[in-house]
Specification:
By secondary structure, the chain is mainly alpha-helical. Helices cover 78% and strands 3% of the residues. It has 10 helices and 2 strands. The protein has a two-stranded antiparallel ribbon with strand order 1-2. A hairpin with a 3-residue loop joins strand 1 (162-164) and strand 2 (168-172). The longest helix has 28 residues, at 200-227. The radius of gyration is 19 Å and the shape is globular. The model has no long low-confidence stretch (mean pLDDT 88).
Length: 267
């Protein structure tokens, strides 16, 4: 399993780094568009099954609209978020049967669009709204990747106390702390080697909250899978499960990093 995870990362990571560092902004936005579509489909399949075709199509259209708005007109993204519950409600009104389940299905669909598509769309302005955007995007992934790796090895070496056994029995407090420390170390290394504009205080103020949010995002997706009896969100990535399994922490971390980038750009 670990070998499969490493091989998958070795194949995909260079492609992602190239696209972030050297690729055009529209190419990166297209990557986010595809990623949110795949992850949203995994969410809808877990929560609603493969039925409710009309509502799924509306959900995917709204997800794509989020990314499009984030690229072409970021100031309109809040209006898309406000429209999502209404448009999806109309979709269920057009095809309400079975009626006793319609509101539950509407809630899950709205939740999926906001959880996956809206949160992931923050990557687009993170990259495009400043000259350092590519570094901010890489910083998100570095904090998450270092955090995941640090948590894994710290948990295996020192893990004794369960972090949240009801939701994720294998996670430990020691692993969680190791992940946070590793995320800070990763951000400092990135600052020293590449992103010199950041201060050491910035590294801590980015990595610690983002690391905490990343772990919370992982727990939330674990709760989602437990609620619907799914082991993984999908089978897209060998050794990793589905795409949503790999970006669950990123979804929670990227909005915070975007806000932090915006705040320090005005100082």
């Amino acid at each position: 399993m670990l070998l499969h995870r490493v091989l998958t990362a070795v194949v995909l990571a260079p492609l992602l780094v190239w696209l972030v560092v050297s690729g055009p902004n529209w190419g990166f936005a297209l990557l986010i568009l595809v990623a949110q579509a795949l992850a949203l489909d995994e969410f809808l399949t877990i929560s609603l099954g493969k039925e409710n075709r009309v509502q799924r199509q509306i959900a995917h259209a709204l997800g794509a609209f989020f990314v499009g708005a984030a690229y072409f007109a970021p100031s309109y993204v809040p209006f898309v978020a406000a429209a999502a519950p209404m448009v999806l409600f109309l979709g269920f009104l057009a095809q309400p049967e079975p009626i006793p389940e319609s509101v539950r299905r509407w809630g899950l669909t709205v939740g999926g669009v906001l959880y996956v598509s809206y949160l992931l769309s923050f990557f687009v302005p993170l990259k495009t709204s400043s000259g350092d955007g590519r570094f901010w995007v890489l910083l998100v992934f570095i904090v998450v990747w270092f955090g995941d790796t640090g948590a894994y090895f710290a948990g295996r070496a020192f893990g004794k106390h369960k972090l949240y056994e009801l939701i994720s029995p294998k996670k430990t407090i020691e692993g969680s702390l190791g992940g946070l420390v590793a995320g800070v170390i990763g951000s400092i290394l990135f600052k020293v080697l590449v992103f010199h504009r950041l201060s050491y205080l910035d590294c801590v103020l980015v990595a610690l909250p983002a690391g905490i949010l990343e772990q919370l995002g992982d727990l939330c997706e674990s709760m989602l899978k437990r609620a619907f009896g799914a082991k993984d969100s999908g089978t897209l990535l060998p050794g990793h499960g589905g795409l949503l399994d790999r970006i669950d922490g990123v979804l929670f971390a990227v909005p915070y990093v975007y806000v932090y980038m915006y705040l320090i750009s005005t100082r």
